[in-house]
Amino acid sequence: MTTPVLDPDLLKAFLAVAEHRSFTRAAQLLNRTQSAVSVQIRRLEERIGTKLFQRTRAGVALTAAGDELLVYARRLLDLNAEAIDVLRARKRDAVVRLGVMDDYGTIVIPPLLARFAQNHPEIRVEIETGLTATMPARLGEAYDLVIAMHPEGRGDGELLRREQAVWAAARTYRAEAQDTLPVALYPPGCLFRQWAADALDAAGRPWRLAFVSRTLAAVEAIAAEGLAITVVKAGTLPSRLRALSNGLPPLPAADIHLHRARNLSQPAALLADHLRLGISEPASHILT
């Protein structure tokens, strides 16, 4: 014999009538008609096979069976609400927002996220790439985690890796043949733009800003066509470019830091630890 299922909607109607001792007040509370509430109570009584209410001159009273069901109805509805709250909270916590530099977001992070997804398929990672100078200030508001670039020896957060900035151009490009060096760089606020300008000016090397873009792919494409040189991290040097040194001033090194928002959720903390370990490992698989 199949055990009857106690429908939460029927239990809510039962609880409303039991607590207010009135079908009319219960109907008003539930925003239903009195006849609709009566139908729900009748269905519940048919499902469990016993009367739950008896009418008296004072209104509606619970039967002995109704008195017993009242305790279980409250527990079942409380448990139902608790389960929904927990699952909704889990769904909210299972989204992790990550901010990262364009080159790391394109080259370094994807394989790490692929491994993370295999072990934690329930966690969704939303990633935003771009200039990271202002991202740490928006932790908690826009990001749970940020992987940002800082001048060597400066910046807060956890040091993950040190990257050397290098000049890069197409493999056949000859910088020494250019009277005025064309340079492809990123918008103001990017450390590489500042370092490139400062280094060339200090060396007295004539140069011009030939191309500006926020995206690594666009800057790389211009350099790969031999239209300009650019600045990249040695650890993420694109395969179609080569590092340049002859006749060009040296560039500083950069520190890659991991920044965490306060009161991280467990999913965000798991991703932070995974990225910390993955990025801190030797990057020989990235170098060209």
Automatic annotation (TrEMBL):
Keywords in alphabetical order, please. DNA-binding, Transcription, Transcription regulation
InterPro entries, sorted = LTTR, LysR_HTH_N, LysR_subst-bd, WH-like_DNA-bd_sf, WH_DNA-bd_sf
Q: Which Pfam families match?
A: HTH_1, LysR_substrate
Q: Which residues form the HTH lysR-type domain?
A: 6-63
User: Would the keyword Transcription be found if you checked this record's keyword annotation?
Assistant: yes
Q: Does the keyword Aminoacyl-tRNA synthetase apply?
A: no
Membrane-spanning residues:
none
Under Gene3D superfamilies, the record lists:
Periplasmic binding protein-like II (3.40.190.10), Winged helix-like DNA-binding domain superfamily/Winged helix DNA-binding domain (1.10.10.10)
Domain of life the protein comes from: Bacteria
Functional note? NodD regulates the expression of the nodABCFE genes which encode other nodulation proteins. NodD is also a negative regulator of its own expression. Binds flavonoids as inducers.
> Into which family does the record put it?
Belongs to the LysR transcriptional regulatory family.
Name-wise, this protein is: LysR substrate-binding domain-containing protein
What organism does the record attribute this protein to?
A: Bradyrhizobium barranii
